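Before going further, it is useful to explain how the protein records used in this thesis are read. An example of such a record is reproduced below.

***
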Amino acid sequence: MNIVERVQAILLKPVETWPVIEQESTDAQGIYKNYLIYLAAIPAVAGFIGMSLVGAGAMGMSFRVPIVAGLGNMVVGYVLSLVMIYVLAMITNALAPSFQGEKNQLNALKLIAFGSTAGMVGGVFSLIPMLSVLGLLAALYSIYLVYTGIPVLMKAPKEKAAVYTAVVVVCGIVAGIILGAASALFSGGGPGYMMGGGRPDAGDVSIKLPGTEITLDTAKLEEASKKMEAASKKMEEAQARGDSAAAGQAMNEMMGAALGGKGGKPFAPDVLQGYVPATLAGLSRSTLEARSDNAMGMNFTSVTAEYEKDDRVLEVKVQDIGAVPALAMAMGAWAQSTVNRETQEEVERIYQKDGVSIKEEYRKDGSRAEMA
C-alpha cells in the first residue's frame, strides 16, 4: 500500500476506494505499522511546532507553549490518538447489529483508520495556529468518509448509515473527552523532526526528536490489540448478562492494554503526603489534598498542597503514575533532554543533577515559577 496514493484515493474518491479497502488482506498490525503511525504524526508534530515554535497571538499579545511542555503534549497526544482509533473501532463494531450491520472488528478498524485520514492530514494547519480552524473542517470531512464507508465495511443499509455515523461521532466525542483528560494528567529543544525506521514494513518504527528517541514496537502493538479484543469480548458478554460491574472491569482492562499495561503499583497517598512539609520557604501550608484514582486501567496517586503568606502563594504537587508504559514514554520525552532557554521575560532549563532530571521555568519578574 502506497501511503500517498491511499491518502489521495480516500480523500478524492471515497466511494470507489472503500470496496478496495474491504478486499485488502491485512491485519491490525499492518494498518498501524504501514499507515496510522505516519498519519497520526502529522497533527502531533504540527501542533508542537505551531504552539511551541510559531506561537499564537492576537491584539498585540503572543503566547507560546514552553518547548518541553509542548514536546510532552506532542508525545502524549500522538500515543493517545493511536489508542483512540482502536477504541472507536471497537465501539463501531459493537454498534453494528443495532443498525442492521455485521460485526467485523478488522473492517471496523479499517473504517475508522482510513476514515480519519482527512482529520489527520488536516492537522497540518496546526503549523499556523490561526489556521487551525481549517483542521476542524477537515475533521468534518472525515465524518463524511466514515458515512460513505459504513455500508461497505459494516454492511449496514444505506438508510441506516447517517444515524449509525451520528452515534459513532457522539461516542467518539465522549471517548475523546476521557482521553483528553488523561492527556492533561500526564503532559509536562529545537525545531525539526524526522521519521526514522526506514521502510513502512520495518519491524519497529522510531521517532527521533531533539534529545530523545521514541521507538514503537509494532509486535507489542499487535499483542496489545489482541488483549484489547479479548477484553472487548468480555465486556460484550458482561453486557449480555446485565453485569455492569464486570463490564466496567473489562473496559478498564481494555484501556490498560491500550496504554501498554497498568504499570507498577503507585505509592499510597499517605506515603506521598510525607513529602509535603507543614511549612516551606517561610510559607505556612493552607490546604492539603491527598487522593488515589483509577481510570481506564491506570492507577495513580497525588498529593497537592498550597502555601500562603501575605500575597505570595506556592503550590506543590507530588504525583505517582505507577509507571504506565505508554505514559512513561511521554514523561521521558523531557527528562532525557537538556534545555537552556532564556528570553527577556522568562527562563526555561532542563538539566541533570545527581542522576535526577530537573525542569525549571520561571518569569524574571518573580510573578510565576515552576519546578519538576
